Amino acid sequence: MRIHTGESPFTCQQCGKSFDNLGNFKAHMRIHTGEKPYTCPQCGKSFNQDGNLKVHMTIHTGENPFTCQQCGKSFTQKGILNKHNRIQTREKPYTCPQFGKSFDQCGNCKIHIKTCTEVSPFNVEKASTVKLYHKQVHTGASTFTFQQCAN
């Protein structure tokens, strides 16, 4: 019922993250304590969540339960299949709110957005090559123009 009310009564005292479910809160706390109660019976590697152990077990079993409907390639995790499908379909569901550039992976979009907010037009000489190139893409200016203007 908490999902409908938005109530999150379980709050981590170490990082402030809140949870609506005691089980999720306990799983989160294992990140801070380092507890890893789920152990692989074949190699002894331990995990803090049972789902991580299940994914790990596919290494030993060779199981690839998630199959691409277009090409037949199989994967150990649904998320990897989804990423594969976005590449095949050229879907780019993650969009920069500032410039409208789209990405097929959330992480790449986050990097792009961080780059957008970190580049200063007043001191581009100190920016990394990647940031400089990124600024050029949006402004159409050349590297030399920025170096001449930076002071």
How would you describe what is shown here?
It is a single chain. The protein has 151 residues and is mostly helical. Among the domains are: 43 residues, Classic Zinc Finger (Double Stranded RNA Binding Domain, 2-Layer Sandwich); 56 residues, no CATH class. It contains 7 helices and 8 strands, in the order αββαββαββαββααα. It has a two-stranded antiparallel sheet with strand order 1-2. The chain has a two-stranded antiparallel ribbon with strand order 3-4. A hairpin with a 6-residue loop joins β5 and β6. The radius of gyration is 22 Å and the shape is flat. It starts with a helix and ends with a helix. The C terminus is likely disordered.
Mean pLDDT: 79
State the total count of DSSP E strands.
Answer: 8
As laid out across the biggest beta sheet, the strand order is 1-2
How much is the radius of gyration in Å?
A: 22 Å
Give the topology string: H per helix, E per strand: HEEHEEHEEHEEHHH
Number of helical elements: 7
Strand-pairing-aware structural class? mainly alpha
What percent of the residues sit in helical stretches (DSSP H or I)? 40-55%
Protein name: Zinc finger protein 32
InterPro entries: Znf_C2H2_sf, Znf_C2H2_type
Domain C2H2-type: 10-37, 38-65, 66-93
Pfam family, one: zf-H2C2_2
